[in-house]
Amino acid sequence: MARKLKLRKIGNSTGVVLPREILEKLRVEAGDELMLLETAEGVQLTGYDPELAEQMEVAEKVMREDRDLLRKLAE
After folding, report:
1. For 10, phi and psi rounded to 5 degrees?
2. CB within 8 Å of 36: residues ≥ 6 apart
3. Within-domain flag for 1
4. Does the pTM of the predicted model rise above 0.90?
């Protein structure tokens, strides 16, 4: 399902208002945190999961530190 969302000025930042149906699907409400993941298809928005966030930080660190080794393994 594609939806057109409007960006709005919020102080010095820019925000987007999510429709109620999307908030319900994400199981979030005002004040909750979201996680934005970059994927090959674009971006994915999910409810914030502290355990997943920690795992992503570890994975990104490994990818940065072992970039050359991972490139060799991908060949």
Report:
1. -130, 100
2. 43, 44, 45
3. no
4. no
